[in-house]
Amino acid sequence: MAPVLSRSLTSASIATSLSPSFNNKNSLVRFRTSFLTQNVFRNGGVVSCGSGLKWKIEKKEDKLVVRCEAAVVEQEEVAESSGEKYEYQAEVSRLLDLIVHSLYSHKEVFLRELVSNASDALDKLRFLSVTDPSLLGDAGDLEIRIKPDPDNGTITITDTGIGMTKEELIDCLGTIAQSGTSKFLKALKDNQDLGADNGLIGQFGVGFYSAFLVAEKVVVSTKSPRSDKQFVWESVADSSSYVIREETNPENLLPRGTQITLYLRPDDKYEFSEPARLQGLVKNYSQFVSFPIYTWQEKSRTVEVEEEEPKEGEEAKPEDEKKKKTKTVTEKYWDWELANETKPIWMRSPKEVEKADYQEFYKMAFNEFLDPQAYTHFTTEGEVEFRSVLYIPGMAPMNNEDIVNPKTKNIRLYVKRVFISDDFDGELFPRYLSFVKGVVDSNDLPLNVSRELLQESRIVRIMRKRLVRKTFDMIQEIAEGENKEDYKKFWENFGKLLKLGCIEDSGNHKRLTPLLRFYSSKSEEDLISLDDYVENMGESQKAIYYLATDSLKSARSAPFLEKLLQKDIEVLYLVEPIDEVAIQNLQTYKEKKFVDISKEDLELGDEDEVKEREDKQEYILLCDWIKQQLGDKVAKVQVSKRLSTSPCVLVSGKFGWSANMERLMKAQTLGDTSSLEFMRGRRILEVNPDHPIIKDLNAACKTAPESGEAKRAVDLLYDTALISSGFTPDSPADMGNKIYEMMAIALGGRWGRAEPEEAEPEDDVVAGASETEVVEPSEVRPESENDPWRD
């Protein structure tokens, strides 16, 4: 606020005479002073000047009181007083079009919305009748009935709920986005003595208009127990107006409640007026609504009728001599059928539900024929409140693509028992737990207006965390159960998914690792856990050793195992493609590192350092000579610590792919071949100093380093080590030729072989045909005691 300047001046102190004299405070005073300009005008006793100042003159006895205020104050007041307030306007027809065609992704949800409205009307009546039983009257039970008419293309939905008066029709149906349920809940909340009924479904006030998704005309006939009159609300699609009239036809009068008639569009008439289709929608979306929902269905029954017509060729017998014969015929008829027989068991206390009830609910809700392997029923309260029943199926999906598909439709989300969606992309469950089936019901979920999409929020993240934790508890109970076959069955069905969790969910490693199972060098028939492995470890063992191969058979015969088996060290066999990546993401378990025995720098903890130095000194020349022969095929050649019976082995570098990983990456359909050479890493040839072949080559490199046979032996040694270590040779044909060549040298006429003779003239052959030809062996090599081909 600008400062206010007040001054009191006597008439004598003013530097000019006042003319004329004033009679009241509203009279205009014209005067000239040293600080006032001549531009003044009358303003209710206020004198203003062009300089932006405002002067207010008052007479007090024999004095003139002049008050001066900054004009800023006046400008603010003028600005505030001159502003006009406007209400937002909307084109109703366009707004309705947006609500109908933009909010909902599936037309079929119209039935869910209308049934939910009917359920709310029944809930309101039930609540209000507690304090005013006269509202119930004699109008019958609280129920919902849905009757399609395929011939006329209409659907009629009738409830015996609270109904609406004319004013309520205008307020609820005539005002878009005004929810009668929300207003009712607010009234209950304001009146704390009555309490609040959280079973009411409505929230946004637009669900009713979803009827125009399939209808070109909607007629609502309603009768409230608070009114003696029944009113009809009628509107057509793409219209900005509606009609309300009083029902005068006695045949259409309702005892209580609301009847909605949808006149279907031509292109939706045949689909949604089909009784079976409507019943399927009710079972899908409104199966667990707390009131009975009846649908008008065509049924059949067998009846016996009398057969009186005579057979051909027979004369008709008198009436009294006719034998009454009957036949069975099928008769069709229409009747009401209860569509929501299954009860929401998650709304009951777990102590009240039997095991058979859980199994029956699982089979009906998910169309399964096998009992679930396990289930859990729980209620979460506090920051987020929801109820849930989760199941582990009795078998894995038949289609492998469904195993790791996050959109498996296995989790059904309900809000106040009304189905919302089962199409989630990892919001409630991670991909590796997508095999879990169940229902989740909550009143706190943040949904979009169409109630089809779950919005990302802190509440959803908390729900996901608790659902995952409960699932792990359920799996852990199976693992710790007395019957070990149960977990073996679970692991066969879903073990790969838990390994996927090791890759995708680092936050739950502590829950996942105790559930993992592997074969090992000491347990080739039964799977063992990591806890079992750690418990069986020796005192000097500091790591968990593993070997990744393509099968148990190749793992058993791998040369990497020789020294470890000799020292009684257990090795895990990773025989599934996902195993190696999963273990690499775990890195440690109970402070024990995972070590791949097919990679360099393997430390077993109890090596003989003296012997190692002697062997290294003895074979350093051989290692350099072999490296020279092989060139860039290997990064280096060194004496091995892991071999006992094999002459050599090819190991991977510490940071490169193993042989198993290299094989898997080559098999990828969309793999990047350019990265294979880079990620393949180093290959290191390790030789066994105690093997005869290595000793012979050591002698050859010292006495005949240029020997062709020795060089061929080195090439063949490398190729065989390549295969025995799990790698794929670059040229299998070249390797085969080398083996054939070595076999020819080794066999070379050992058992004698027939040499082909040159062809003789035909006459000589005919002439000597009667003589017996003796073929002598071309060469016979003496057998030696050390001959490897000797029997």
TrEMBL record:
It comes from the Eukaryota. Residues 313-324, 778-791 have a biased composition (Basic and acidic residues). Signal peptide: none annotated. One of its GO terms (molecular function) is ATP-dependent protein folding chaperone. Residues 302-324, 753-791 are annotated as: Disordered. GO terms for cellular component: cytoplasm. SMART domains: HATPase_c. Residues 766-777 have a biased composition (Low complexity). InterPro entries: HATPase_C_sf, HATPase_dom, Heat_shock_protein_90_CS, HSP90_C, Hsp90_fam, Hsp90_N, Ribosomal_Su5_D2-typ_SF. ATP binds at residues 113, 117, 159, 164, 179-180, 203-208, 258, 451. NCBIfam families: PRK05218.1. PANTHER family: HEAT SHOCK PROTEIN 90 FAMILY MEMBER (PTHR11528). HAMAP family: HSP90. This is Histidine kinase/HSP90-like ATPase domain-containing protein.
